[in-house]
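Chapter summary example.
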Amino acid sequence: MKKLIFNMLFIVMGLQLSFAQQSSPDQEIMAISKEKWQWMADKKTSELDKLFHEKSMFVHMGGSWGKQQELDIIKSGGIWYKKADIHEVSVNIIDNTAILLNRIDLLAVVGGNEVNNPFMVTEVYMKQNGVWKLGSLSFTKLLVPDSR
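The structure predicted for these 148 residues follows.
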């Protein structure tokens, strides 16, 4: 009897582990986004170049531009995304499009000045030929009460 219970327990634990290892599209997009923040911090423009769609657009507090300008800005250090503290993430998938919202505190160096801002970041990904590509990244600065 003990052996039967042990075997049943072993099978159930194996099934749970098997299901836990499978990732949903939501989890896949969240992982891509998290990795993107690290690539931006590390200035890994070769990885970002693969992720960003050729027609991707980027909206910042200081303007909006396309893929090549974003890569050039990251590479040159014009904006250095030092650290994104992610507080909330939500994903909504519509057909082959994923819309991810991140509430973050972003520590960055912009024009030589270190700044820390709270943002809601909208990321739009499209799945093409089985690969997710970032089509748009938009920063919206959040108004938060001064805690001083």
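To summarize the output: Confidence is low (pLDDT under 50) at residues 6-10, 17-21.
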